[in-house]
Amino acid sequence: MSRQGASQLITAKPLQQEPLIDAIKDSDELEKLSLAAGISQEVLHSNEHLQERRTKIVATLGPTSVPKIKELIVAGVNVFRLNFSHVSDPESQRPVIESIRKESAALGIPVAILGDLCGPKIRCNTFAPTPSIQLIPGSTIRLVHSSEPGNATTITTSISQIVGVIAIGHRVLLNDGNLRLVVTERVSADEVLCQVVVGGELKAKKGINVPDMAIALPAVTEKDKSDAKFMFKMRLDYVALSFVQRAQDVGDLLELFNNLQSQEALARHNGNPLPDTSGISLDQLEEDWRPHIISKIETPQSLLVIDEIINISDGIMVARGDLGVECSLEQVPLIQKTLIRKTNAADKPVITATQMLESMINAPVPTRAEVSDVANAVFDGTDAVMLSAECATGEFPIETVQMMSSICRNAEAGSRLLQGRDFTIPLYKRDKKEKIIGSEKYVSEFAHCIADAAVAAASEASASAMIVFTTTSEMPIFCSKRRPSMPIIAVTPTGSIYRRLAMHFGIFPVLSNGLKISTVSGSISRLRRTEVEIPLVPQTHHENDSHTVSTESLGGGPRLRNTDAILALTERDVIENVSVVKFLKVGDAVCYCAGFHGPFPGLSNTIKMSRFGESIRSERAHLNWSESLRRLSIG
Ligand SMILES: Nc1ncnc2c1ncn2[C@@H]1O[C@H](COP(=O)(O)OP(=O)(O)OP(=O)(O)O)[C@@H](O)[C@H]1O
Ligand SMILES: CC(=O)C(=O)O
């Protein structure tokens, strides 16, 4: 668009408004509308969800936070992490998962769930009779291979691969390296003596790292397999794989999910579908659904093959706790920056984790260094920041989430200034060297140029929002990675995409109630696998139109199909979603991005610059006009 064209658009008079869209400017009406749309008063009045924070918050649930799920969502949590390292029976997590879904639906706020697999992490057992022990510097402590609890003089671990092979002089780091021992004597195949170098309190189930030796453990343990099956069955949005060392480790988990997908498909095909107790119905999942895999980068070995790992994974976590122990602490900031750049270049989500607001476990305010750390992760371009013990066991989980949210918002405002005009100068440069070679990911033909043009047009027109249709999640993510200065409202008819997009920077998902897109004859992934010919006009009345849209909710005829009707329904969906409508007023410039009249859904090919509310108005005018014509011709 030319500069002149853009400025005309900016100075154009707002549209004359209709009662439906006038309503969103009136707060009483807004409340009525939100209640009718099932959106609670808490969200309507919560400060957090009415302000646009782009960086997403992942919060670990634990004993102190499970009873506070609702308050945590209202405070700003976008993704809950369930750490299965601390879970012996996966079924024990079912009520927690159900509770997250119930509260999220009642509040009308999308929340994703991330199940974190333990992986081959070596941990100490519990302690008895006290829940923790004190390690005194200079004292001697026994390290024993056993399934029994430890005690004041003995640390036990049920993993056999360490005590039998560790050598005198090797370092033993406990609790993310906060406590340190050195091996001084071998007593038997199952026992060594260690001297405490750095002491302190050691609680149950804390990690044990032995950086001086390589340990051969499978990436996906038997416990992980059982937990991963449970996560699949419960339709968790993300599964994090700990201690990934090679791309094949992710491949092993993918194979497990592929097998589960095949079993389900076969059972359905034979008319014997397994009872689904997840509470998520099949039509809320996209075709070929499986949990998305987040690889946790926490070992030096994984850094050697990081491109392959990013390529096969659906996203990355910078797991700074173990990374700081397995590598050296001083290397962590540079590794964080590199991982964020590479993952952004691959258009995948990246989470920055661990000790972000650690002091808030016991204090209502963080340290200045912690505030700086969170802000710098935002400047680096992370999609999400993560809270661990601060939220799982800390005294101030709600305050911690509120603080993290406030730091992110302030950093985002600052980074727009730092970036010059706004975020549209990309945080990373999409340069060829950083592009992941040989990606298996299907990218539709025009996707990148549409995303470039949409972000540029939205910025040029000072649009209040981008409104992006999606059935694959591809286009909103491409836009998000270009860091536009305005929010990206992602409208999708698919429940799993609605939840999953909650973890992506700057994306505000809206579940479309009105829009039903016919799947024609196959999803993009199936097309790609089989390379079938697509019938161009399978189930539609109009020759070039592959979308089926019901406009009943607009009061129009039953199965009217055209682009304006789709946009009008989208505007209605956005208006009814109070958590996004607050930063979008009728008459504001908006940039729509969608796939219209393509051979099948999922192909973004169109940008439309418009004023918010214009489509509802023109669609209604069109319906009235058609109705008059019909009457005239009958008359
Ligand atoms: N489901 C849970 N049940 C009981 N305690 C938990 C649970 N989840 C977390 N915790 C407690 O919160 C602390 C911090 O949580 P987090 O998940 O970060 O643990 P971690 O063991 O340090 O992490 P990781 O497994 O990623 O190394 C844990 O050390 C544990 O004490
Ligand atoms: C989150 C995690 O596993 C780590 O930081 O080590």
Automatic annotation (TrEMBL):
Domain Pyruvate kinase barrel: 53-259, 290-401
Signal peptide range in chain numbering: none
Its EC number(s): 2.7.1.40
Gene3D superfamilies assigned to the protein according to its UniProt record, in alphabetical order: Phosphoenolpyruvate-binding domains, PK beta-barrel domain-like, Pyruvate kinase, C-terminal domain
Keywords, alphabetical: ATP-binding, Glycolysis, Kinase, Magnesium, Metal-binding, Nucleotide-binding, Pyruvate, Transferase
Pfam families reported for this sequence: PK, PK_C
Nucleotide-binding recorded as keyword: yes
All residue ranges annotated as the Pyruvate kinase C-terminal domain in the record: 450-520
Named cofactor requirement(s): K(+)
Gene Ontology MF term list: ATP binding; kinase activity; magnesium ion binding; potassium ion binding; pyruvate kinase activity
Similarity section: Belongs to the pyruvate kinase family.
Protein name: Pyruvate kinase
Organism, scientific name: Physocladia obscura
